[in-house]
Amino acid sequence: MTEPWPTPAASPAAPDAASPAAPPTPPTSAGPFDPPGVTWQPVSPKLVTVRLISLALSLGLPLVASVVVAALVGVPGLWAVPAAVAAFAAWLAILVPRQVRALGYAERDDDLLIRKGIMFRTLVVVPYGRMQFVDVQAGPLDRWGGIAKVQLHTASPASDAAIPGLPPTEADRLRDRLAERGEARLAGL
């Protein structure tokens, strides 16, 4: 079992009882996107399926249309268009599961943390006292997949505080808990 705090190496001489012990050093974070002592909650893996179906619906029509046009016109160079659409769809199909695995949230005593992104990472910190209201959203495809999105609204219009891909029971629990904590923080101001 490892100790939570690193211990200094033992010195050959015995420490003097009168000398004060050095305070333990707190654990350091792995960077600005991984604060120390935070346990991240992942989103539902069902979000991958919902996003892949949405991707197929949005790129399926351009793929079929470009194949039909390339076949009817008969110009060999036009087959590059459906090949490019198919390559883009394949790249996104590989990227979507990684993006979903990168999503997470953590509830702390004073704020909510939301992280996302692989190449362009984002960490959003929303203080409970700054939340104006919290709502739960689910479109038809989300409801079919059994997931919902919790959207946090603050005074800042640029705030992108949303947690997609939560099971409906977790979305309800999180909405109620965040609203309760937000009211408690506002009452304390």
TrEMBL record:
Segments for region (Disordered): 1-36
Domain of life: Bacteria
UniProt feature, compositional bias: Pro residues: 21-35
Alphabetical UniProt keywords: Membrane, Transmembrane, Transmembrane helix
Entry's transmembrane regions: 52-73, 79-96
Domain YdbS-like PH: 101-178
Compositional bias of kind Low complexity: 10-20
InterPro entries attached to this UniProt entry: YdbS-like_PH
UniProt-recorded name of the protein: YdbS-like PH domain-containing protein
Species the sequence originates in: Actinotalea fermentans
